[in-house]
Amino acid sequence: MMIRTIFGLLLLALASSLSKEAQTDKKEKPKNPYLTKFQQEAGARPTKCQVCRLMVSELLERLKITNYKETLNKGYGLDLGEDPRLQIHYHTSELRLADVLDDLCDRVKLYRARAGPAFPYIKGAKSHLREAMDDLAARSKVGLKFHVPDDVIEDYTYEVVRMKFQCVHMLELFEEVIEEWYFEHQDQDLMTWLCRERVLKIDEQGCLNASTAMPADYFDAFEDNHNATKKSEIPMREKQREDM
């Protein structure tokens, strides 16, 4: 309850800071419907669809990064390079797949849950709490220190933590299916092969095509249109940790 109160107060402060008349206008500020919906639905996230989409997105990204045309030898000896039966092509090897899957679900920590986009998980974005704290610190005339744990700041709703555990569970259930795709069907779209055809029911697939763009009317609830224009993009972290 205390964490929810902190989050609510910081978001309220952020919303108020976007208005030049915040100190003089006594009228109640309109609530942003996207923020309201985001907080109301936090307990239901992530969905199975959202987990599958992020897992597949990161798997494909890791395959792209590890797309080496390297040839490895199966054993030791001076003449191994001359015998193709004793060579492994890393590009299509089991070793490459193992490398990709090894830390796959840890990579969901690179995402933050954001209000507004139809698909709320944005890679490299600031969390709402981080954005609010940075904004307050930048506008304050005195130094501000927030004694809030980093894990709360970055994942107030704890849904990224839940995302990781659900990703691990899904990977365990469908690892053989992924292996089948990797060795035999890489010419087919993995999002369709795995999520649409094997993991999700038809009525669970809505998030697969959902946009990650910020809605054009997201800041309409705020009175300061100048600031709303300046902040119309999702704020991103200056540096991402890729070595999770």
UniProtKB/TrEMBL annotation:
Belongs to the canopy family. Transmembrane segments: none annotated. It comes from Nematostella vectensis. Keywords: Signal. This is DUF3456 domain-containing protein. Residues 48-204 form the DUF3456 domain. It holds the Pfam family DUF3456. Residues 1-24 form the signal peptide.
